[in-house]
Specification:
mainly alpha; 63% helix
């Protein structure tokens, strides 16, 4: 049975506020703050800047359920070591024109 919207949002918040920041230092990740993980994951799910695809703030509350589920899936891939945070972060910054 698929997660309810509330369960999906709880998974999102746990991933981005607790789980990912908890492993960031030991993995040598360039990000540590929840909002940075949220940017990278939402941008990845949208394949572009999330604010071009999601109306309203906070984004996780206003994102279509399928998009939020994809962002959660990407976060789980980061935790499992199946997704490279550095590559994902660089792509997110490139979509935003902020790559140095």
């Amino acid at each position: 049975m698929p997660d309810s919207r509330a369960e999906l949002e709880q998974r999102w918040l746990h991933l981005t506020r607790v789980a990912l920041p908890a492993v960031a230092a030991e993995r040598g990740w360039p990000l540590k703050d929840d909002h940075c993980f949220q940017r990278v994951l939402l941008d990845g799910a949208c394949e572009g800047c999330w604010y071009d695809h999601v109306s309203g703030r906070p984004a996780y509350r206003h994102a279509p359920e399928q998009l939020l589920a994809r962002a959660v899936e990407l976060g789980q891939q980061l935790l499992a070591g199946k997704l490279d945070l550095r590559v994902s972060n660089r792509q997110s910054l490139a979509w935003r024109g902020r790559l140095r």
